[in-house]
Structure formats: structure tokens, C-alpha cells
Specification:
single chain, 220 residues, alpha+beta, 8 helices
């Protein structure tokens, strides 16, 4: 529900999983916001104007109408979810949700998201493609951890769906783009479908055709 009169501005790249996390939660919360598309792969996060907002030169970034900004996707999720059902009120459950969000950024995103980026946003002859076998191996290790958890639990945030699920959903749902197949993870498959069935769900947009062609060229 992108709204030009909203008090919250989100700078993001729509085909980025980290940015999609923020959009998905905002939509499910029913929060008014203004989306500013930023092509980070094309260098738009390295301009002087953007670096003045976020010296780390990354999206997503949220800016309040009072000028304050917040970077890092999972920090944004935590802030947006405060006081809502998407973040447990119980301290132990909140810590468990954060544990999975740290797992996502340390053990999941650096392999599954990076494999997707290399596969889609680098040319077929790029030397970075030599990294793909190792990234895929690490990606499957992370998915195995998730599969084990989901064999006995419905969600990652606690007893119900919430921000840890959003954090892990974004890049898991498109892991195949980086050559990491999900066919051997039935519990993850059921969880992905459960996330898609939640009220207010929005899917990540398809990447540009040239990126999709690169995905196919990089398939193992």
C-alpha cells in the first residue's frame, strides 16, 4: 500500500530479499509507507545523496518524517513489529525469534542470498561463479538446520508467525534462483506455503528478464 503521503519512506530494491522482508511486514501490518526504488546492483546506493542517508551504502533503509533513519533489514523488522503480534511479548520467545534472525544474517543470507546474486547479477563468465559450489553447500547446511526445526515446530518466531519467519522466508523462497533446490526439504516447503497463506502476503516481484536468463545459465 505504497502511499506518497505516508510518514515512513522506505528505500529498497524490490527484487532484494532483504528489502522484501520490510515490504512484506509493512503490508501485513497495514502501515502506510512510501517506497523509493533504489537499484543497488546498479550503484545507486553509492551516490553522495544516498551515502548521506546511509554511509554503509546499502538498502533497505527507512526514513521517518522527522528525518531519523534506520538501516539493516532485521533491525527494521524488529522496530516495526514492536507492540504487534509479529513479535512475541514473552522475553524468552523474543530471544528465540532474535536467535533465528541472527542465524538468518550469519548462516543463511551470506550463502543463499549471495549465490542468488552471483547467479543473476554477474555475467556468465564472471570469476565469482567459482564461488557457487561452496555457497550452495553452505546453503544446504543452513536449510538442513531449518528443516530440523520445522519437523517439530510450525514457525520460527515462537508459537505463531512473525518477524523471524519473514526474515527467513525472503531468501529461502527464492533459493532455487541461486541453484539451491528445495525439493528435499518437505517441512520447509509446507512452511513456505503457510507463509504465503498469511493475510496481507505479497510476493517478491520477478527479476528483470536478463537476470532470469543468468539464473538459468548458472544452474548446476
Amino acid at each position: 500500500m505504497s502511499n506518497p503521503g505516508a510518514a515512513l519512506t522506505v528505500y529498497g530494491m524490490s527484487t532484494s530479499g532483504n528489502c522484501h522482508k520490510v515490504r512484506l511486514l509493512l503490508e501485513q501490518l497495514g502501515t502506510r509507507y512510501r517506497w523509493v526504488e533504489v537499484d543497488s546492483a546498479g550503484g545507486q546506493t553509492r551516490t553522495p545523496d544516498f551515502l548521506a542517508l546511509n554511509p554503509n551504502g546499502k538498502v533497505p533503509l527507512v526514513e521517518r518524517d522527522d528525518g531519523r533513519v534506520l538501516a539493516e533489514s532485521n533491525a527494521i523488522l524488529f522496530w516495526l513489529a514492536e507492540g504487534t503480534p509479529f513479535l512475541p511479548a514473552d522475553g524468552w520467545q523474543r530471544a528465540q525469534a532474535l536467535s533465528w534472525m541472527f542465524f538468518e544474517q550469519y548462516s543463511h543470507e551470506p550463502c543463499i542470498a549471495v549465490a542468488r546474486f552471483i547467479s543473476g547479477w554477474t555475467p556468465p563468465g564472471s570469476p565469482r561463479r567459482q564461488e557457487l559450489p561452496r555457497l550452495r553447500e553452505r546453503g544446504h547446511a543452513a536449510l538442513a538446520v531449518m528443516e530440523r526445526h520445522l519437523s517439530g515446530h510450525d514457525w520460527f518466531t515462537g508459537p505463531d508467525y512473525g518477524i523471524a519467519d519473514i526474515a527467513l522466508f525472503a531468501y529461502t523462497a527464492v533459493a532455487a534462483d541461486g541453484g539451491i533446490a528445495l525439493s528435499s526439504y518437505p517441512a520447509i516447503g509446507r512452511w513456505l506455503q503457510a507463509v504465503r497463506a498469511r493475510p496481507g502476503f505479497v510476493a517478491m516481484p520477478d527479476p528483470p528478464p536478463e537476470v532470469a536468463r543468468n539464473f538459468l545459465a548458472a544452474s548446476p
